[in-house]
Amino acid sequence: QILEALKRHGLRTFKERDILRTTSISKIADLKPGLEILSDRGWIRTISQSKSSGPGRPQGQTYETHPKVWA
């Protein structure tokens, strides 16, 4: 479901909330196992993020899809 949403919406980089908006998955806790599987299999990877220097919530993790997804 996650990989198909990436293809359908052309998401080359994305955050967890982008997947929640484009699928029927409603909780981050339900999303994490799928992201881990895709990462373990090489379909996505995490992009290092800069530390937030100001107040407020930290930014969510950013992911990048493997070019094979678009082949």
Describe this structure in words.
The chain contains three helices and three strands; from the N terminus they run H-E-H-H-E-E. The chain is an alpha+beta fold and 71 residues long. The two termini are 18 Å apart. The protein is globular and about 40 Å long. Helix content is 39%, strand content 15%. It has a three-stranded antiparallel sheet with strand order 1-3-2. It has helices spanning 2-9, 16-22, 28-40; strands at 13-15, 44-47, 62-65.
List keywords for this structure.
alpha+beta; three-stranded antiparallel sheet; 71 residues; 39% helix; single chain
What's this, in brief?
The protein has 71 residues and is an alpha+beta fold. It has helices at 2-9, 16-22, 28-40, and strands at 13-15, 44-47, 62-65.
Helix and strand element order:
HEHHEE
Strand order of the largest sheet: 1-3-2
Q: Major sheet, described briefly?
A: 3 strands, antiparallel
Shape: globular
- Rounded Rg: 13 Å
Unreliable residue stretches: none
What's the layout of helices and strands?
Layout: H1 2-9, E1 13-15, H2 16-22, H3 28-40, E2 44-47, E3 62-65
Antiparallel strand pairs: 1-3, 2-3
